[in-house]
Amino acid sequence: MADTTPVSQTPQTPLVRAALRARCPRCENAPLFGGWVRFAPRCRACGLDYEQFNVGDGPAAFLILIIGALITTLALFLQLGAQPPFWVHIILWVPITTLLVILCLRASKAALLVLEYRHQAREGRIAGSTPQAAKGQ
């Protein structure tokens, strides 16, 4: 089903709230996800096709960088302040990092899909060409 609703007519819930609620960006009724971090194929309420959006691995890459910087800073402060043995760092920071990335992944994927919908982001194309011409057909 093609997206025929203009973005300007959709409710503009703030991005953070929309990402945490993980609802359809068009109707805000049905959930975005069919699993923990797997998108549903389409909205159960309005039929918006979620497969047209290319979220990819962007959210995971951003989370690893952001959370990695945060954890590294905290680990340095702990090391400089208390100088614990190395095993304390392993036992403390590996689970915290893993949990933060997993818990934030759902919200970050939802945020990226909402942003793609609101800004009508689609796969890049060269002006005046068709998808068949771009493939060399």
Total domains, how many? 1
Task: Please trace the helix and strand order, writing H or E for each element.
Answer: HHHH
- SS-based structural class? mainly alpha
Radius of gyration over alpha carbons?
20 Å
Cα(first) to Cα(last) distance is 26 Å
How would you sum up this structure, described in words?
The chain has 137 residues and is mostly helical. It has one domain. The protein is built from four helices and no strands. The protein has helices at residues 15-21, 58-82, 86-118, 131-134. Helix 1 crosses helix 3 (86-118) and helix 2 (58-82) packs antiparallel against helix 3. It is elongated, with a radius of gyration of 20 Å. The mean pLDDT is 85.
Features:
137 residues
Secondary-structure topology with pairs:
Blueprint: H1 15-21, H2 58-82, H3 86-118, H4 131-134
Helix pairs in contact: 1-3, 2-3
In short:
This protein is mainly alpha-helical and 137 residues long.
